[in-house]
Every structure is written in structure tokens, then in C-alpha cells.
Backbone:
């Protein structure tokens, strides 16, 4: 059989990445990144509205062309490599990042009449202009269709598909009226690559549909009447601009069209997989399997698991989503995560420390402290709480400061708080029958922050394994590229088979220290008290113990009064 | 009548100050400071025990000599001034700072056999080695004599007289056995100046006795049997090394002895007042009168009031002390305060900012924020809570951080938290029938921090007046010097008469802004929730509102969502 390669195309918030992988062993043959050219780091902002964040779809295409060409150029150095050996393409993007398109599938923002209309752009995942609409949809669903919310954490987010559609209807009715379809970026890119100019026939992906648009096999998208009761025009979007069925990424969206084959210098007819959300394919690229929690640790965290869809699975309160087939076909995809991880550490260093090397300096100092020694405890909610409280209007908390508290102690407390937030999620999963037998981490923090990783291991009492690939999202996309290519073409016939060869672990694992874990168990009990007191409505216990217990633990760890 | 002057001698933690005042108008003719020569800034420390803080009594005498001579030298520039015109001397010191003395009143540490024994030194107010003994005394008093604690906040402190005596008995029984008396610094200094070599006859001051040793006119010092039940040797101290009666500072301790008259170049026979605690005389020097709260704002705060002893006064839970005659004879002296004020701001700047000018820079930036704008709220307990919770084992808390929170916002939140702690005390006083009709501030922060003063005014809704004198403790001592001199010698026959002429206000008053005060009322409600939840045992309400209310207030102040 001829040598084969798979291409993963990963569309992030600020840039696109192309990764060429050898499916036989997961070797990363070449990779390249290209930034989106417009706006501020690829994001169109509005100085008057801090909630607004949009993108130009053509930026995605320009960056895709550039990074694919660059990756191919790098791959050309590999002996015998030819672009024609790429047998399958997978795609992941941010979500929910929907955009309005015309009858031919072209972004509306390309039309001259909408050139200055921000509503005709793509609505980036982090656009929060629809916060009021999200609350409206949540309230309506709670009353009439609680089952819609049960699979997505109990609260419909302003980051998601319907909130943005409703906001677009209200902010720019002429835009939505002119749209033939309202589509996710993860559906738009495969449609472009396959040259499909009829959005009615685009294969929408189950990942974004299930996690962001309340799609479920039982009822497909939410009921048109339900949506029409919120706003008649939203019912109309449901009826005429969306879809009735969603697909998993082991399905082909189509074949690479001659036009894009020419632009990218690839073989026309190469199969292109149905798209998916970046984090979900990141889990695939990290080697997620039943019992393993794939943890993408960057500015925020995404915690992904899969669970056989042949087994029953309860609704798990507080999870971002449970969607059949969203990560690996045949499995429920479970999504959880923390709204801010690295963002909190960066905030602290940028606001309360000096210079670029501060992470390194602070980490070196913070590493010398024993757990409990500072008497500090932090809630990691500076950017709200995504799981399990699903509440963007929560904030940070730091407790236990004395006149001797140092910057490095606070830095460490913030890391510990983050690890405790991670532990809360793990315990919730296990409580609802999803055992966490291993944790595989990836992302910037997993690669670069030994202190954070060790504290995560010590707080959770679990080894922190590291994904072999440092770009798991693109790797996951490449895996789906290999799957749609199929075994006969040098790919695979199942995701599991592809993962078995294409994913792996780094030799380094962060092992929990039993002594430190024991102290963290005591701290975690206090963390949970604060978590429940400030994050839930039902907590009615005294908090008078918290400061005292922290001091007692501190004195015990320091050996004071012995 | 010949021109007369009064001398105030103020013994602080690190230095002594002499202040020569014209009693006719309060004019500060000359002042000088001398540092204590030994240890670290005058404090003998133990690298092995961070709780230990002692002083050498001879340091006090050396510094007193030096600063008095320096002040006299400066005063000599005033036309017609002669040292013989000083008609009365008043003394204030830190407290509780007790020391063991021999039969002739000499400090035991002067004896060769105790030269290396830290227990023979003076036990500085901030020595906390007796924390276990304090708890023991508190427990015993709660069971057998709750009335002992009712006048001093409900908890006997490790900073105080009996805790330190008990600790001395246990740590160095040979020292206490050798002591003829266990005396406060504020009794020791006047005894030295008056050349009284029989400690049995020293006039002990009501201020330290009442506020630090549970002395009360009804029962004098605590019962010997009660103390003996804690430790028989403590009963023995009570019986043989203390006193049966305490005196107010309008009484003469005696007349300046020839030896010290010679050393200080003053007239022998000059009357020396009974001593008192620095903060209490600070209130006198600030012009305290019924209805006025004298607030000394420095590293910590002391809040002092007086209340006619002809009127009934309830025990006020959480106050540091209520002692008849401790500030002005004929009035109950009420003492409250916060364990850390400037200390918290300094801690923040030193730990989280850069360089010496940071207070100025941060204050300038923080002054631009509107109340509520940051969404932050802080508890000011980094050094525990002295009033009203009387709990050294409480710690700081900061709530409301986002990824956008700045250093200046936190700085302002710490100031606001401090002001709310001040407001809690004022409201408690009023609740128990002591109206606060004016607030007169003094101390380093009152002099130097307009931002802090304005926030205090806005949070409490009360004008913050400024004492005319910048050294109110020494001024209070000088006032008592004038009082023991008497009107016939150019002084006064009552404290009130002396205060009327010798104290006053600066022209500047910080007026509360009604709009800002209104926002702070909303914040104060949340502060009180946190205060009660973490500081008391009885709080059982939900705290789920706190972060949300802070954000709602923030958005309202910022005009978001309007």
C-alpha cells in the first residue's frame, strides 16, 4: 500500500493550524500556524461594547490556505513525501461561532450591503452580546422543556447558537432576514472545502449541535413552536435556516473540491470529515477512551470524557454537555471545564508582579511552600464558573491573608484553587457513575508548568499524564481525516483503531504525593464549604471555622506550637 | 503669673518623645524624639520564637533623657523660655508592657544573674508568648467571674498583664520569685522620675489597671483565689507583687526627684502625673469630650470615647475596655480599635507593588474609582480582629476579583474594608447608648492620607475632623502635666479646662459625599454579611447573593446594561 498521511485543520480563536500526521504511528510530519489577518488578533471588536467579538470568515480561509501551504512546504523535506499522499482531512473549530450565509453558502458579510454590519460577521464563541437572550431562552426552557437544558448544564449560555441567533434577529433583523442559513464555523469550513454551494444540504456536526444548540436524537433541534414563543422570527430560523439531522465526524462532509484542491495543492476528491469543536477533537488527539479524562489546560480548561452509549447515563448536573457521538461515535461525549485557569495565573502576574519572567520566578518560590503552609485558600472564579455551577456571575475569592502573606503564596493559592475546581468536576463525574480512571493532560499549561501539574496531581490525588502530542486538537482532526479516508486508503475504519496508533503519552507523569494529598484533602473540605456557600443557594452552615481551620492547618504544617 | 510650660513624655514602641507645650494656647514650643538603642528598633527579639518581643527599661530612660534634653535645647530658641518654667510633667507609655522589679524598684534585668534572661526584661505589648495563658485565663474567668471579662471585650488577651505574669511564672519561675513587684511601664516611669524606691507605694494607674488587668472599682484586681486556682504562683503575684488601688492621671505620682531633675535639667519638685496608656492620652490630646470619638489612625487604630460616669452604661460587647477614669476623670473611658489599618496598606504595597512611591501612585489611581465600581470587597482582618470580634485568629478576605481587577482597585478595596471595620465599631457604640456626634482623627494616616480619610468619611457618612496636634499622645501627657501643676502654677485644675485651651482642630475636615455614602451603604450591608459569616458562630444565612450583588452594584455604578 502506498504511503499515506492525514491532515488536521484546527481553527483557534486567533489563528489556524495545519498538522500533517503519519497515521501509522502518529508522527507529526509538519505543522504550521497562520494568524487571522483582521481586527485585533483576528477578532473584530467594538470599543463601545466590550461584549462584542466577531470574526471575518474569509480570515479563516486565508489563514487555512497559508498554514496548509506552509505545512506542506515543511513536509516536503521529509523523504518521499508528496502532497498527494494526504488521504483525508479533518476539521475542528471554535464553537459556538455561527454566521449567516446566503443561498450559495457565501457569508453574508461578503455582500456590499452588509459590509459595515457587524451582525453579518461570524459571532465568535466569546461574544457575549446575547446575555439577555440567553437568560430568556433559559427561562423559557426551564418552564416548558427542561429536558433541553438537562444535557447542557441547566443553563443556556450567551456563547451559544440560539442566543446569538436571537440577538442577531433583534440587533439586525435585516441580516437574519437575508440569511439562507445560520451555520456553525465547524460546518462552514468543511462545506467550503467540499465546494458545497447549497447550505440546505450541508452536513451539520453533532458536536456543535448537541453541545451548543440543544440538539438531541430524541427531538433533534428544539421545537419550532417553543422557539417561536420566545420570538416568532426565532421559530422561522428554526424552520428554514437550520437542519433536521446532525452527523458525527467519522462521516464524510464530502470530497475536496477541485477549486480548493488547487489552492491548497492537495488531491481533489480527498475525503473531508464532518467538522467538530476544537476541544472535543483535542480529547480524541489526547487519546481519550472510556475511563480517561482528557484535560486541555490553557487559558481555561476543557475536561472531556466518553462513556459507552450502550450503557445508561444519568443527567449530570453542572456538566456543560452530554452528547451522543460528539467526541467518538458510539459514546456519549461529556464536556466539562473551568472558565479560567491560565487566565487567572496570567492576570495575577500581569497585575501584581513585574515583567515577563515572573511566572518562572514565582513558580520557583511557590514550589518551596508546603501545602497548607500559607493559610490561604482561593476560589477560582475570576471568570465565573462554567462547571458545575454554570454561573458566569461568580467572582474570585481569596481568604486567609495576614500581614506576612507574600506574592508567591498568593500565586500558589490561585493554582491550588484551580486544582480544587478541577477536583470538584472529577468528583461529580464519579458520583454520577462515570469513573475517572486516568487523567491525560495537554495544552500550554500541561507542557510548560510543572508546578501547576504537580499541584493538580497532589490536590486530586491522581497521576497527571501528558498527551504525547502538544497539539491535540489538530491531531484529533487528523485522526478524523484518517478515519474518513478509511483503512483501504491507509487510514482507519474506526476512531479507536486510529487512536491506538496515532496517540500516546509522554514518558513524564506527575505522581501525587500521599502526604501532600492528605493536607490537600483538609483544604479541599474548606474549599467545598466556600464553593457551596458562595456558589449555591442552599448552603446554610456556619463558615466561622474556615479561617480558624486554615490557621490551624498552617500552624500544624509549620510545626508551630509543637 | 510667671510664664509656665508643660512637658509631655510619650513612650512609643520604638522611641520616646518629649513635647513642651504652652498651656495657655496649646502651642507646641518644642519636640524631640530619641530611639531606644537596643535590639531591633528598640525591641529584643528571639529568632526562635516570633511571638517574643521584649524591651530594656534602661533604653526608655536613656531615650527619655536624650529627647528631653533635645527638646529643651530647641525650646531655648523661644524668647524668654527657661527649663524652670516647666511646671508639670505627664507620662504615657505602651501597654500592657509589664516588667519585674526588685525591692528598690530596679528592673530585675539589671541584676547580673538575670542579664541573659529574657523574662527579666520588660514584656512589650506586642509580645504574644503568653497566648496559651491568655486562653487559660479567659476560660477560667468565663466560668467563675464573667464580670471580669464584661468590661474588656469578653476575651482576655495575650498582650495583657496577667497573661504575661503567668507566662513569666512558667517560663522563668526564678525571675518572678525574685521580683518584688510586677509593674506596668506606665507606673515604672513616673516612679523613676519621682525617685520612689519602694514599689509597694507606687501609684499604679487606673488606665492600665482597668484596660489590661481587669481592675474595677467594685472588686479592684481579680480575686487572689481565682488567680491561684489557675496557678498558685499567680495568686501569690496578686497578693504580694501588685496593688489594691489604682489612680487616675490627674493625680500626682510624686515630685521630680533631685537626681532626675539634674539629669533632665528641670526643676526638682516639679509635679509628675500618674501615668497612662499612650492611646488614651492621645484621645485627651485630640480633644475628646462626650460624644466625640477620638480615632488614632496609624499602623492600627485606637478608637476612644468618654461617657459621664454619672450616667449608666451597659457592657458593650466587643469593646476592648470600659474603665472609669481611664481617659478623663469623671468619665468612663471606652476603648475600641482595629488590629491593622496602615499595616494592611503597607503590607499590600510592599508585597504586591513596587518601590517607595507606590502609596502615592496607587492612591492617585484609586481615587479615580467610584464606590462599588470595582466589584471588590475586603475584610480587614489580616492581623485578626480586635473589635468587635476580639479574635486574633481571623484573617483577611478579598472577594469579587475578575480577570480585569487591577492593583489600584484592590488597594482601594482594602481601604474601604478598613473604613467598614471602623463603621462597625461606631454602630456598636451607638447601639449601646453612646452616640458618636463627631469623629476627631489623628495619627500618621490622618495626617498623610487624604484618600483614606475621604473614604472613611464616605463609608461612615460622618465628617472626619483632624486634631490640631500631630502628636496627640504627647499632647495628652502635657495636658496631664498641666493639670497636676494646677491653675495656680499656670496649669489647670481640670482636664476639661486644659483641653479647652490646649487642644483644637485643623481647618480641614473631610466631608462625606451623600451619593458615595449611599453606594457604600449597599456595600456595607454585604460587608456585614461576610463579617458575621466568618467572624461569628451564629450566622446561618445564604451568602449566594454576595458576589452577584457586588456585580450588580458594579454594573449599576458603571452604567452597564442601562
Residues:
Amino acid at each position: 500500500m502506498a504511503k499515506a498521511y492525514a491532515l488536521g485543520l484546527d481553527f483557534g480563536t486567533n489563528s489556524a493550524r495545519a498538522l500533517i500526521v503519519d497515521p501509522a504511528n502518529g508522527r507529526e510530519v509538519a505543522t504550521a500556524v497562520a494568524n487571522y489577518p483582521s481586527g485585533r488578533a483576528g477578532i473584530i471588536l467594538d470599543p463601545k461594547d466590550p461584549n462584542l467579538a466577531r470574526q471575518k470568515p474569509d480570515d479563516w480561509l486565508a489563514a487555512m490556505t497559508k498554514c496548509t501551504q506552509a505545512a506542506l512546504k515543511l513536509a516536503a523535506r521529509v523523504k518521499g513525501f508528496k502532497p498527494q499522499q494526504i488521504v483525508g482531512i479533518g476539521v475542528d473549530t471554535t464553537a459556538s461561532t455561527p454566521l449567516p450565509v446566503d443561498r450559495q453558502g457565501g457569508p453574508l458579510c461578503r455582500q456590499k450591503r452588509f459590509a459595515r454590519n457587524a451582525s453579518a460577521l461570524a459571532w465568535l464563541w466569546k461574544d457575549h452580546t446575547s446575555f439577555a437572550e440567553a437568560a430568556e431562552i433559559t427561562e423559557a426552557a426551564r418552564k416548558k422543556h427542561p429536558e433541553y437544558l438537562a444535557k447542557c448544564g441547566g443553563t443556556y449560555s450567551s456563547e451559544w447558537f440560539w442566543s446569538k441567533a436571537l440577538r442577531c434577529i433583534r440587533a439586525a433583523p435585516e441580516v437574519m432576514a437575508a440569511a439562507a442559513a445560520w451555520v456553525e464555523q465547524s460546518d462552514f469550513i468543511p462545506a467550503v472545502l467540499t465546494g458545497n454551494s447549497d447550505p440546505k444540504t450541508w452536513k451539520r456536526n453533532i458536536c456543535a449541535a448537541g453541545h451548543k444548540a440543544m440538539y438531541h436524537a430524541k427531538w433533534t433541534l428544539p421545537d419550532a413552536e417553543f422557539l417561536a414563543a420566545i420570538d416568532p422570527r426565532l421559530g422561522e430560523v428554526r424552520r428554514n435556516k437550520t437542519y433536521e439531522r446532525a452527523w458525527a465526524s467519522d462521516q464524510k462532509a464530502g470530497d475536496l473540491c477541485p477549486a480548493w484542491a488547487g489552492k491548497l495543492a492537495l488531491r481533489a476528491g480527498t475525503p473531508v470529515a464532518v467538522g467538530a469543536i476544537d476541544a472535543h477533537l483535542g480529547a480524541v488527539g489526547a487519546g481519550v477512551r472510556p475511563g480517561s479524562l482528557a484535560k486541555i489546560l490553557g487559558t481555561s480548561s476543557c475536561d472531556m470524557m466518553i462513556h459507552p452509549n450502550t450503557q445508561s447515563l444519568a443527567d449530570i448536573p453542572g456538566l456543560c454537555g452530554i452528547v451522543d457521538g460528539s467526541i467518538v461515535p458510539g459514546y456519549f461525549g461529556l464536556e466539562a471545564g473551568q472558565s479560567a485557569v491560565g487566565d487567572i495565573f496570567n492576570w495575577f502576574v500581569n497585575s501584581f508582579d513585574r515583567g515577563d519572567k515572573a511566572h518562572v520566578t514565582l513558580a520557583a518560590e511557590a514550589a518551596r511552600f508546603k501545602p497548607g503552609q500559607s493559610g490561604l485558600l482561593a476560589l477560582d472564579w475570576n471568570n465565573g464558573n462554567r462547571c458545575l455551577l454554570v454561573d458566569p456571575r461568580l467572582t474570585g475569592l481569596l481568604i486567609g491573608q495576614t500581614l506576612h502573606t507574600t506574592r508567591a503564596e498568593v500565586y500558589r493559592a490561585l493554582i491550588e484553587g484551580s486544582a480544587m475546581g478541577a477536583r470538584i468536576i472529577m468528583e461529580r463525574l464519579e458520583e454520577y457513575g462515570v469513573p475517572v480512571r486516568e487523567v491525560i493532560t495537554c495544552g500550554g499549561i500541561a507542557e510548560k508548568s510543572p508546578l501547576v501539574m504537580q499541584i493538580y496531581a497532589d490536590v486530586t490525588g491522581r497521576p497527571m499524564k501528558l498527551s504525547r502530542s502538544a497539539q491535540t486538537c489538530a491531531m484529533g482532526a487528523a485522526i478524523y481525516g484518517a478515519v474518513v479516508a478509511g483503512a483501504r486508503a491507509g487510514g482507519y475504519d474506526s476512531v479507536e483503531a486510529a487512536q491506538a496508533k496515532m496517540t500516546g503519552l509522554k514518558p513524564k507523569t506527575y505522581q501525587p504525593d500521599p502526604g501532600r494529598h492528605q493536607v490537600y484533602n483538609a483544604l479541599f473540605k474548606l474549599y467545598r464549604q466556600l464553593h457551596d456557600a458562595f456558589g449555591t443557594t442552599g448552603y446554610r452552615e456556619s463558615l466561622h471555622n474556615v479561617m480558624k481551620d486554615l490557621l490551624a492547618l498552617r500552624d500544624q504544617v509549620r510545626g508551630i506550637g509543637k
